[in-house]
Amino acid sequence: MNNFAFGVKDFFAEKPKLRRNDAIQNFADISNFLFSKAPKFRDNPKCKLYYVTNGSWLADENNLAIISSTTEDLKNTNFFSSVEFEALGAREISKLYRETKNTISTSFVFTNKVVLPDLPNITESYFGIIPISEFKKILIDENNNLRNVFYDNVRDFQGIGNPVNKNISETLNGDNPELLTVLNNGVTIVTSFLKTSGNKFTIKDYQIVNGCQTSNVLFNHIKENTFDNLNLPLKLVYTEDEDVKNSIIIATNSQIAIKREQLQAMTEFQKNLELYYNAIKGDGKLFYERRSGQYRSDSSVTKSKIINIQNQIKAFSSIFYENPDRVTTYFGSIVKQNIEIEKPTIFNPNHKYIIYYMAGLAFYRLDSLFRSKSIDTKFRKVKFFLLTLFRMLINENKLDPVFMNSEKRTTEYCQPIIDLLNDKDDTLKYFTKAIEIVKFSELDIEDKQLIKQVNFTTMLKEAFRKYKIKTDIS
To answer: Which residues of the chain have pLDDT under 50?
Structure first.
């Protein structure tokens, strides 16, 4: 970064000291020519610097000092009306990439509305009712397909058989469909761009953060029927603040049963983890279900290959923290004590994604062995204990949590296990050994109270060590 900053300052220096190649000299000639026309400028140019790395951007004291010093030095040249210096790491790049995929815009008429009072970090907000004919412009694209407007939703469409969705459908099909206006909570839209001209609204980069179920039921019905004369409650919030957006999602979903772990779906880490899973090719391809039910209607996705947040947490915790007794029975405490804290030990923003994928792959392979009856299905009840033993059989040493943010250390630890998991014979061999250890321990896996106890895990780990000595496994 320091070299980059020095290079930029030298580029605009009256007497540059760095040697310039042909390309840089050409740009310098263009710059000098433009500045020679400065008397004709309406305003001085803006200078924007972007330092981009595929590593982690750390806003530490030294990096911030470089940014501050460079910005100040460039301002002092009096060449620029403003100077901006932005640093981007892997997470920031991923976020920008996702935004390119979710960029949508639409215009609609919003007549029956009230302007909500000024609120912190919210540019504008409105509440009112909107005709279905106008809501369709928000919901459906020009090809009559559902727009990608639920990416930031905690849950995807839960199906027409869901009790809430069934009630909405019955209202639409009933004698008084107009009651939808008062019976439904409506939808909440958060947008990062809003332009108004009277009652005409134009929004861009928007998401329906609450009302996914209502929207999908309406979409299914308006393909066959006309409900243009019906009205739907609508709350529209214009903000660019991510924290405000997340607060709105939590608040507007508080009236329905949302599991605590599902609220993780909104985080940057979860969105990037989903991208990581999507990048995997071949037989090890899995689908990370960040939002509950997001693959429900996708016939191209093999349902057994879906790893939801709950199973991701359980598999990860069993493999890396060796606490299968807790994930089996006390899952809520895992979420509270390891995720809902200032510096989480699960889904930590600095963790590398490969450790989560490895855990998800191990869970999938074990589940596949049970489904094919390659191993005795009676051991399903101790499957997370088997995941702990499986990892111990391959590498008895746990990955130190200190190194979970190291690309090098996590790859060195996880890649051999991933390679083994992608060999079906080796996978079966190691999980068979894990079951042999459970049998060797002579612990009663039918005792539900016993497997809830940490002592069950302790005794299994002790049985592993004795089994290792007896069989001389390596």
So the answer is: 255
